[in-house]
């Protein structure tokens, strides 16, 4: 997944799609709640749409055992395979995993040159070298920490801005629905014929 981290899709488009789905839920809220407690309805919609920012637990990292591996290198333009060593560093994270997939509005053209995969709770960094050392592992982990923290920061900034805009849109949608429900209630009163 390394060539895909922070590049599978556009974060703005993903958030806009999420927004459409969540705003459509305003029409399924209980009419009484919308009419009598619109702020409660707004809070419910906002909470339902919440996108959790990415955070990494750098103090909680663990590693797998060092193992033998085949390392690929370029030699005069040709890809060769040589014996080497590999270790996997497990970095716990919280937040919405989709943020690891999407490119934020701020991004770098340099890509994400790390061999990683993602589980529900960890980003796993695979470090392979012909000969691993504690220093080479530490250096690569430091580079990775800097790169992923920067990209996650960009994504979190986009989510934070979107959340403020979404709350305003949710409030407007609830108030529009409240107005429609009030019109229906007024019409019901004006008809003057009892319900069957």
Please tag this protein with its features.
single chain; 196 residues; alpha+beta; six-stranded antiparallel β-sheet; two-stranded parallel ribbon; 8 strands; 23% strand
Q: Output the structural class.
A: alpha+beta
Oligomer: single chain
The number of E-state strands comes to: 8
Order of helical and strand elements:
EHHHEEEEHEEEH
What would the principal axes of the Cα set say about the shape? elongated
User: What portion of residues belong to β-strands?
Assistant: 15-25%
Explain briefly what this protein structure is.
The protein has helices at 11-24, 31-36, 38-49, 98-101, 134-191; strands spanning 9-10, 55-56, 62-63, 67-75, 78-94, 102-103, 115-118, 122-129.
Describe the protein's architecture and organization.
The chain has one domain (9-191). The protein contains five helices and eight strands; from the N terminus they run E-H-H-H-E-E-E-E-H-E-E-E-H. It has helices spanning 11-24, 31-36, 38-49, 98-101, 134-191; strands spanning 9-10, 55-56, 62-63, 67-75, 78-94, 102-103, 115-118, 122-129. The strands form two sheets. Strands 2, 3, 4, 5, 7 and 8 form a six-stranded antiparallel beta sheet that branches. Strands 1-6 form a two-stranded parallel sheet. Helix 1 (11-24) packs antiparallel against helix 3 (38-49), helix 1 (11-24) runs parallel beside helix 5 and helix 3 (38-49) packs antiparallel against helix 5 (134-191). The protein is elongated, with a radius of gyration of 25 Å. The model has no long low-confidence stretch (mean pLDDT 93).
């Amino acid at each position: 997944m390394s060539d895909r981290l922070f590049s599978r899709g556009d974060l703005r488009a993903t958030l806009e799609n999420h927004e459409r789905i969540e705003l459509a839920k305003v029409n399924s809220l209980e009419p009484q709640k919308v009419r009598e407690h619109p702020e409660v309805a707004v809070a419910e919609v906002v909470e339902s749409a919440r996108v959790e920012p990415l955070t990494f637990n750098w103090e909680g990292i663990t590693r797998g055992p060092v193992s033998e591996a085949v390392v690929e290198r370029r030699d005069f333009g040709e890809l060769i395979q040589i014996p080497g060593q590999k270790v996997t560093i497990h970095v716990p994270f919280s937040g919405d995993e989709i943020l690891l997939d999407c490119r934020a509005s701020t991004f770098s053209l340099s890509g994400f040159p790390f061999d990683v995969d993602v589980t529900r709770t960890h980003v796993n960094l695979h470090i392979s070298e012909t000969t691993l050392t504690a220093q080479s592992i530490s250096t690569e982990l430091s580079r990775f920490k800097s790169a992923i923290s920067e990209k996650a920061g960009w994504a979190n900034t986009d989510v934070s801005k979107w959340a403020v805009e979404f709350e305003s849109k949710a409030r407007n949608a609830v108030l529009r629905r409240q107005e429609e429900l009030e019109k229906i209630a007024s019409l019901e009163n004006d008809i003057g014929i009892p319900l069957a």
